[in-house]
Design a protein that fits this description.
The protein is built from twelve helices and eight strands.
Length: about 375
């Protein structure tokens, strides 16, 4: 059996169209020189192969995935909220990578994200900090109910009462190359061997800064979803999201929070969008159960309601009335129930176009009654 790897002469020099940006970034680094060393510009030039991409992720797939997750969370009596980053965001910097700092990529959506386990850890960190001023007994009870254990090191005797979903972006994020400039010498690598005659191992300001490029995200929007595993915990969702709000505002998510990365704020505009998504899903679910005749009626009803919501006035002979007329002409072989349903809608439309006294409109309605 052959190993499923590229032969040397087939190794791609640039990301193939429609290929997964994260897979490309993580697995196809090709900036090594023949002696396996890196020139100074190698790391940044590799990061630029991702930040210069015109396509990272797919808006349609993100919308579909988030809509499905929203449906699942709603059925579980959970809740979803959207948060917007105050500045840059980065997660998964500890992942191994030739440029020294990795990135957490969603395995199928090809966008940076925050894993559900990280969301859980974030909320737990806020509860453990007890900034809400709970008594010790209430804090332990909350930790046990939400996460299964009072202390992280405890062996869980029960599952946590909450399900934390991956926090996913709802639009393609913008990637950028940031630079960190550590100047600690060998403190982190050999600090345990420090002595007075080894100034290169001391963390002091006489060291030259070492620029290290890394991949980050600018202005990301993430949708966080949490659902109760037990019905009794549904009433605690407000407290759970209060903890999440505070954690995102004061602790930050992902890496480098000490330097301002990963702070997110609740996006209040999401409530209207969420309602629109749920309404669309309900309409699609209803459509799936309709007969062909009912689908035609529903199509006309949508057109009617759209004009009503936009206060568009229309007279007899307009597009709405003409579509009604065309549909009535097709109803001779319709079942009685669908004809009655269309008659009810037609009467509303006739009133809307101010044609109650019109002989043609009366004739149209009479055709449905026969």
């Amino acid at each position: 059996m052959s190993t499923p790897l590229y032969a040397c002469d087939e190794w791609p020099n640039q990301k193939p169209d429609q290929a997964h940006g994260g897979l490309w970034f993580d697995r196809f680094f090709n900036r090594y020189s023949p002696n396996w060393t890196l020139v100074d510009t190698a790391k940044k030039s590799w990061i630029d192969t991702v930040t210069n991409l015109t396509v990272t992720g797919n808006d349609e797939q993100l919308a579909e995935t988030n809509a499905r997750q929203l449906t699942l969370v709603s059925h579980l009596n959970g809740r979803s909220e959207r948060y917007t980053s105050d500045w840059h965001f980065v997660s998964g910097m500890g992942n191994p990578h030739p440029v020294e700092n990795g990135m957490s990529w969603h395995p199928t959506l090809a966008v940076p994200y925050l894993a559900g386990s990280a969301v859980k850890g974030l909320v737990r960190a806020w509860v453990e900090s007890n900034e809400d001023g709970l008594s010790e007994q209430n804090q332990k009870a909350r930790l046990r109910a939400w996460f299964g254990t009072e202390y992280k090191g405890d062996v869980a005797e029960q599952a946590g009462g909450l399900i934390f979903f991956d926090a996913l972006p709802d639009r393609r994020p913008t990637l950028l190359c940031d630079i960190m400039t550590p100047h600690m010498g060998k403190w982190y690598s050999e600090g345990d061997q420090v002595c007075l005659n080894s100034p290169d191992k001391l963390p002091a300001d006489w060291h030259e800064p070492v620029p290290i490029p890394f991949l980050a995200v600018r202005d990301i929007r993430l949708i966080f979803s949490i659902a109760p595993r037990q019905a009794a915990l549904a009433e605690q969702l407000d407290a759970v999201f209060d903890a999440l709000n505070n954690a995102l505002e004061w602790l930050g998510a992902g890496a480098k929070t000490a330097t301002g990365y990963g702070y997110l704020s609740l996006d209040s505009t999401y409530a209207e969008e969420k309602q629109a998504i749920q309404k669309k899903q309900a309409r699609q679910a209803k459509q799936a159960t309709l007969t062909e005749e009912q689908k035609e009626i529903e199509k006309l009803r949508q057109q009617f309601e759209d004009k009503q919501s936009k206060n568009i006035t229309e007279a007899i002979g307009g597009p709405l009335y003409n579509d009604l007329k065309k549909l009535v002409e097709q109803t001779d072989a319709w079942p009685e129930a669908e004809r009655a349903e269309l008659l009810e809608l037609a009467q509303s439309i006739v009133v809307y176009v101010n044609a109650k006294k019109s002989a043609k409109a009366k004739e149209l309605l009479q055709r449905l009654r026969n």
